[in-house]
């Protein structure tokens, strides 16, 4: 029987790279995003859903996972960057949509999964180095990913038969990096931490989504050596 994985935010970037990696391994992949990801072959079942439309999520998940009693893996990857700006210049209205996409949609999904009776071996929530770095300008995004780390730790108690990790995936050359690496959109003198990203682009330190997806898929089984609920960074995993 095929192994099964649910991946959120699989229409582009890392989620798409992960989808390709698991399809190549012969897994059944269940994907969800707003734009959808229907052009890949293999055992992909894909639906379109705005995960911040909380009332729509349960029905969408029921349709997507109808008849499924076991998932080997869930990767909660969907996320948004929000604006790079000083926190003092960031109104609450700018923080809310980032928290909605990066944190609360995952709470709604986890609650649905918990109540669904589906047996799940492992859940990986895609976090970020920004969750712990505290660099200038990463405001709403950093707050959301720090909260995601704690969400993971707290839910680990409530999923006693499932292993949870908040995983920073390292730098990946995606649409998020198009924004971060664009001087017209993010001023490097004001937010110096982006210099490292710009230097990493087009080098091995910022793989394309396909390569990053393969690398993360290979690392995921090893995360089970960490206590459930941990934060881990793919770049330092071998130091654990
Ligand atoms: N790229 C990096 O260097 C990097 C580094 C650290 C962490 N991350 C994390 O990696 C994850 C993937 O990001 P990425 O870099 O691959 O960016 P990306 O290419 O912009 O992909 C984001 C994905 O999330 C989905 N998504 C966003 N909002 C959604 C919503 N409301 N409902 C459903 N799906 C939604 C998008 O799909 P639709 O637009 O089709 O809905 C898209 O598939 C994010 O959690 C990000 O924070 C990335």
Characteristics:
seven-stranded parallel β-sheet, 17% strand, Rossmann fold, 240 residues, alpha/beta, globular, binds NADP nicotinamide-adenine-dinucleotide phosphate, single chain
Query: Which kinds of small molecule does this entry bind, naming each only once?
Result: NADP nicotinamide-adenine-dinucleotide phosphate
Question: What would you call the shape?
Answer: globular
Question: How is the CATH topology named?
Answer: Rossmann fold
Radius of gyration computed on alpha carbons: 17 Å
Specify the CATH architecture.
Answer: 3-Layer(aba) Sandwich
- What structural class do the secondary elements suggest? alpha/beta
Our count of domains comes out at: 1
Helix content estimate: 25-40%
The overall pLDDT, averaged over residues, is 96
Count of extended strands: 7
CATH C-level label: Alpha Beta
Distance between the termini: 33 Å
For the record, what is the CATH homologous superfamily label?
NAD(P)-binding Rossmann-like Domain
The major sheet is characterized as: 7 strands, parallel
Arrangement of strands in the largest sheet: 3-2-1-4-5-6-7
From N to C, what is the helix and strand string? Answer: EHEEHEHEHHEHHHE
Low-confidence stretches: none
- Binned strand content: 15-25%
Number of helices: 8
In words, what does this structure look like?
By secondary structure, the protein is an alpha/beta fold. The chain has one domain (4-172, 209-228): 3-Layer(aba) Sandwich (Rossmann fold). The protein contains 8 helices and 7 strands, in the order βαββαβαβααβαααβ. The chain has helices spanning 13-24, 57-64, 92-116, 130-133, 139-158, 175-180, 194-200, 209-219, and strands at 4-8, 28-33, 44-48, 70-76, 119-126, 163-168, 230-233. The protein has a 7-stranded parallel β-sheet with strand order 3-2-1-4-5-6-7, sandwiched between helices. α3 packs parallel to α5. The protein starts with a strand and ends in a 7-residue tail after the last strand. NADP nicotinamide-adenine-dinucleotide phosphate binds at residues 9-15, 33-35, 50-52, 77-80, 101, 126, 128, 168-169, 171-172, 174-177.
């Amino acid at each position: 029987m095929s192994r099964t994985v649910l991946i959120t935010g699989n229409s582009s970037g890392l989620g798409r790279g992960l989808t390709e990696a698991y399809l190549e391994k012969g897994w059944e992949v269940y994907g969800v995003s707003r734009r959808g990801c229907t052009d890949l072959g293999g055992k992909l079942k894909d639906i379109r859903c705005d995960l911040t439309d909380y009332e729509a999520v349960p029905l969408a998940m029921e349709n997507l996972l109808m008849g499924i009693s076991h998932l080997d893996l869930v990767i909660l990857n969907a996320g948004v960057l929000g604006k790079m700006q000083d926190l003092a210049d960031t109104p609450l209205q700018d923080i809310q949509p980032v928290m909605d996409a990066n944190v609360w949609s995952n709470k709604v999904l986890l609650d649905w999964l918990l109540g669904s009776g589906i047996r799940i071996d492992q859940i990986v929530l895609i976090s970020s180095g920004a969750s712990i770095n505290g660099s200038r300008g990463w405001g709403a995004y950093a707050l959301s990913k720090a909260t995601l780390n704690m969400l993971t730790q707290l839910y680990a108690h409530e999923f006693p038969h499932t292993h949870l990790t908040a995983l920073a995936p390292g730098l990946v050359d995606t649409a998020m990096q198009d924004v971060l690496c664009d001087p017209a959109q993010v001023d490097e003198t004001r937010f110096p931490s982006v210099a490292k990203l710009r230097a990493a682009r087009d080098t091995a330190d910022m793989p394309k989504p396909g390569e990053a997806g393969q690398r993360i898929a290979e690392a995921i089984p090893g995360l089970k050596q960490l206590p459930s609920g941990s934060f881990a960074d793919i770049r330092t995993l071998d130091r654990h």
